[in-house]
Amino acid sequence: MLISTKGRYALRVMLELAQGEPGECMPLPVIAQRQGISEKYLESILSVLSKAGMLSALRGKGGGYKLAKAPEDYSVYDILCLTEGTLAPVACLEAGQNCENSAACSTYPLWQGLDETVRNYLVGFTLVDVLHMKK
After folding, report:
1. Per residue, what are the HEC states of 36-90?
2. pLDDT tens digits for 65-116?
3. C-alpha–C-alpha distance, residues 124 and 87, integer Å
4. What is the pTM assigned to this prediction?
5. Rounded to the nearest 5°, which phi and psi values hold at 128?
6. Handedness of CA 57, 59, 62, 64 (dihedral sign)
7. What's the CA gap between 64 and 133, in Å, rounded?
8. Do residues 10 and 79 make contact, with C-beta atoms less than 8 angstroms apart?
9. CA-CA distance, 58 to 128, in Å (whole number)?
10. Closest alpha carbon to 17 in 48, 54, 62
């Protein structure tokens, strides 16, 4: 499993918005400038987050993006799963997959354990937790 640029940027954007004033919208150009992300690429990330209900978007003067919920209500796992599609270490563990060889596969329990470990680790961190981590 490798977290893509899209996933890393999505998490950074969510953290940026979590640091803002509650209820205040942040314009796309401001987010892009602060995070060093092109506006076009950022727009595609914000679209995914907005369509999933993680962000609220307001058009017009004073518009921009804001978190749809409190920062403590977002897990790192949920953000990354949304933007990555899957965090499964192998294809047979991806949602909707039914591996016909899982019962006989000697490595299946290994991959299953890794998948559970990653999920349990990332579910344990909210945006607030990440903001309070020491560098």
Report:
1. CCCHHHHHHHHHHHHHCCCEEEECCCCCEEEECCCHHHCEHHHHHHHHHCCCCCC
2. 999 999 999 999 999 999 998 898 888 888 767 777 777 888 888 988 999 9
3. 15
4. 0.88
5. -65, -45
6. positive
7. 27
8. yes
9. 24
10. 54
Burial 45-55, CB ≥16 within 10 A → b, else e: bbeebeeeebb
- Other C-beta atoms within 10 Å of 8: how many? 13
Phi first, then psi: give them for residue 16, nearest 5 degrees: -60, -45
Residue with tokens 């470990």: 117
CA distances from 133 to 2, 4, 5, 14 (A): 22, 22, 21, 15
Task: Name 28's Cβ contacts closer than 8 Å, sequence gap at least 6.
Answer: 39, 42, 43, 46, 64, 65
Task: Render the burial of 59-90: b for 16+ CB within 10 Å, e for the rest.
Answer: eeeeebbbbbeebeebbbbbbbbbbbeebbbb
